[in-house]
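Throughout our pipeline, every protein is held as a single compact record rather than as scattered files. The record that follows is passed on verbatim for readers who wish to inspect the format.
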Amino acid sequence: MTESLAGRRKMGTGLQVLTVVALLGSALNAGIFYTFSSFVMPGFARLTPERGIAAMQAVNITAVRAPFMSVLFGTALLCVVLAIWSLTSIGSPYWLFLLLGAVLYLVGTIGMTIFLHVPLNDALAVIDPAAPDSAAQWADYQSRWNAWNHVRWLTPLAASALFTAAAFAGRVAPTTT
């Protein structure tokens, strides 16, 4: 008796590994962004606007390096693979968890980074910290950046929870007919 891929009830080893790695990547990104929401940005807010702007400009330059980018976009690549894989596994107990986790990470983390945070960071990059209007620009930046960053750390955290649910659901023994 053969079982179709869509009818599989249990995850194969390869899918289990990809799911756990996506879970860990999502959780790590949640932690990175939570760090900014919980104490980095509040710490920068305690600085003078000139120093806060300069500190955030330095962080934004430093962030665009392999250690952070590989975790951020490596997890995104895994999410694309898992989303496609989930669609080949419709009917399994884990497919919807995989799909929702992947979409949530891609939209809530990657989409928000590309379409909200990067443009804000690019605008901050050209501000002269010593300019007379820099304090108002810094206040506006912090308000918008922080509000969306709270969402940005919650979405990969939720994605990691969904990947956890998928991993547990994928442990269900195959059914026989």
Notes: The first helix runs from residue 13 to 45. The radius of gyration is 20 Å. Helices lie at 13-45, 49-63, 66-87, 95-125, 134-169. The CA atoms of residues 104 and 159 lie 6 Å apart.
